[in-house]
């Protein structure tokens, strides 16, 4: 879903700005953005599972499901680590988490389209 | 004693955690899916996965014993990624399927190549015997 990549991209930019300005911990608007991203990832997981169940294409199912579910977990774990570490390094953790989501999203999309689904 | 898991250490925990999950996932899919296809590659994937999880746990625990375990884990990772990296180019028939360490961890943004050295540097920086 392109929406995930767009939201992740916006969050990455916001995180880099935070790191450069040494603003930590992140403010409420930032966490709102992460929350929206998390909801979109949850919706994607449900939609993805339903689509997988309904498709005829030869999608690598275990990998696809693992990526769908792990992508949902990465954001809250990253946010939790960042809240414990209230310094610039906490924001770097968020950056790691967001880049992970982006990488997983690209893999998810290629797993899906690569199988001709 | 300096905490291993605070400050930059938390970034290392995050990176190691991600890699640990990625490597575990890959080796689980490979070993459960088609174990006979590339036994060496898949066993190495599993070894890498375990090492990354051990390194993550050592960083979180921060005890003197955990530091030693972390040191061993990071060292083996460093040797592993360089050895498999070289072999995957020089003797590619050994690895019919990819491992986390193939081509110096290319498929994982070269994280497997960078992380063990970051881990070793961080262990050294925070060592109780070192200044600062």
From TrEMBL, chain B:
The residue ranges crossing the membrane are: 12-33, 39-60, 69-91, 103-123
What keywords does the record list, in alphabetical order? Membrane, Transmembrane, Transmembrane helix
Q: Which domain of life is it from?
A: Bacteria
This protein is called Integral membrane protein
């Amino acid at each position: 879903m392109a929406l995930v990549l767009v939201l992740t991209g916006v969050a990455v930019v916001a995180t880099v700005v935070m790191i450069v300005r040494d603003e930590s911990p992140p403010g409420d608007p930032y966490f709102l953005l992460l929350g929206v991203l998390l909801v979109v990832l949850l919706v994607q997981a449900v939609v993805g599972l339903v689509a997988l169940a309904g498709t005829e294409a030869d999608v690598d199912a275990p990998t696809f499901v693992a990526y769908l579910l792990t992508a949902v977990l990465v954001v809250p774990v990253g946010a939790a680590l960042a809240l414990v570490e209230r310094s610039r390094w906490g924001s770097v953790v968020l950056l790691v988490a967001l880049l992970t989501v982006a990488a997983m999203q690209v893999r998810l999309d290629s797993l899906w389209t690569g199988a001709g689904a | 004693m300096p905490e291993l898991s605070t400050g930059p250490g938390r970034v290392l925990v995050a990176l190691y955690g991600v890699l640990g999950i990625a490597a575990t996932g890959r080796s689980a899919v490979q070993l459960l899916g088609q174990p006979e296809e590339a036994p060496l590659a898949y066993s190495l994937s599993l070894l890498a996965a375990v090492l990354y999880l051990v390194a993550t746990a050592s960083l979180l625990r921060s005890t003197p014993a955990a530091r030693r375990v972390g040191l061993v884990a990071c060292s083996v990772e460093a040797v592993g990624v360089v050895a498999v990296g070289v072999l995957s180019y020089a003797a590619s028939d050994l690895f019919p399927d990819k491992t986390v360490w193939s081509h110096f961890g290319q498929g994982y943004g070269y994280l497997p190549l960078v992380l063990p050295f970051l881990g070793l540097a961080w262990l050294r920086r925070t060592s109780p015997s070192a200044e600062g």
